[in-house]
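Q: I'm writing a short methods note and want an example of a predicted protein-small molecule complex. Could you take the sequence and the SMILES for zinc ion and return the bound structure as C-alpha cells? Please keep the output block clean; save any remarks for afterwards.
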Amino acid sequence: MLNPLIREVNKLNELIEFRKYLHSHPEIANNEENTAITVKEFIQKYSPDKIIESIGGNGIAFIFEGETEGPTVLIRAELDALPIIEVNDFAYRSTQKGVSHKCGHDGHMTILAGVAHELQKFKPNKGRVILLFQPAEETGEGAERIINDPKFNSIKPDYAFALHNLPGFNKHEIIIRENTFAAASIGMTTKLYGKTSHAGHPENGISPAIAVSEIIKQFNNILKHGKTSDLDFGLVTVVHTLIGEKAFGTSPGTAEISVTLRTNSNDDLELLKTVCSEIVEKISHNENLKHEINWTEYFPATINHLTAVEIIEKSARELNLTVNKIEVPFRWTEDFGHFSKVTKSALFCLGAGKNTPQLHNPDYDFPDELLPTGIKLFIKIINTICSDN
Ligand SMILES: [Zn+2]
Ligand SMILES: [Zn+2]
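A: Understood, no commentary inside the block.
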C-alpha cells in the first residue's frame, strides 16, 4: 500500500495535469461543450451519485449524497474562458487562437475536481453536496440561466458557495465580507436621433453633439452634486460614444452613448438607472432630439449571507488560513450574485499572490499552489454543514 503522503502528492500531480489540460483547451462563454465533457470524464471517476447535464446551457452538476437526510450545499465553479490572446509560452499554453483562461476558471474547476475526489473517500454524514460547473460567467448569463432551468429545482441548495482567486493579495489569504461583497452593474446604451444637414448649415438640421457632451457631463456630476445622496457608492463610466459619421461635409443626425452603471446594492442600481434616464430625457427634450435607451449585461450585487460568511470564516481559521475581512466591497461584478437571490450564499476570494498578473491580463496564469488550499477549505465548509458533530 502506498504511503498516504505519496498518495497525496500523486493526487495533486494528477489535478495539476487536469488544470493544465483545461488551460490548453479553453472555450469562451456559451461554447463550453468540450470543457463540460472533459469535466464529466474526469469527475465520473469519483463515483458521484448523480450527474445533471446541460443545465442552463453547457452547465453540469455532480451530486454526492450523504448518509442521511440533511442540508444541500452547492459549490460553484465556472466553465468559460475569455476572448484574450495568451502571451505565455509555457508548454500548456492555449491551443485555441484568441481564447485563453485568464480568469483562473481552469483552477476553480480543478479545485472542485479535488473536492469530488475527497467526497468519494469521505461521504458527508448528512445532506448532499452539489458540485456545479456553470457556463457563461464572463457574460453574466450563466448563473441566472442555471437558476431558471427547471432542472435546478432538484438541486435547490440550502447554501451556495464559490471562490475566486484574486491577484494582488497574499497567496492563500481568504478575503471575505458579509453583505455586499461585489458590486451590481448594468450597461446602458442611449441612442439619440436628430437630423443631418450640410456642415456649412448646421442650423438646418438637429445635431446631437451638444446633447452628448451635456449628457456625459451630467452623468459625471450625478454623484458629485448629491442628487443621489442615498447612494453610498455609485459610478457611471463612459465606455463608448459615437456621433454621426466621419464625413466632413455633414453635420451629424444620430449619436450613441454607452455607459456602465455600478453601485453597491440592487436598489441603488435602480435609483441610478432612474436618475440617468431622467437626464437623457431632459436633455434630449431640450435639444429637440428623439431618444431610446437599452439595458444590457445586468449583474446583481453579490450579497453574502451572514451565516454563510461565518461558516467560511470559522472553516478558514480552523485551517490556520489568514482571513482578510475587507471593509469596502469590490467594484467588480460576479454573476454569482444571482445565487444570493435564491439561497444563503457567499462568494469569497483566495489570494493569488501580490505579484501574480491581474485577472484578464494576457500573461495571467492560475497558480497551482492554490489548489490544495481551495480544496481543503471547501471540504471544511462541507463538513461544518453536513456533519453530525
Ligand atoms: Zn473574469
Ligand atoms: Zn472569473
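A: Remarks, as requested: Residues 78, 103, 105, 137, 164 surround zinc ion (ligand 2) (CB under 6 Å). The chain has eight helices and 16 strands.
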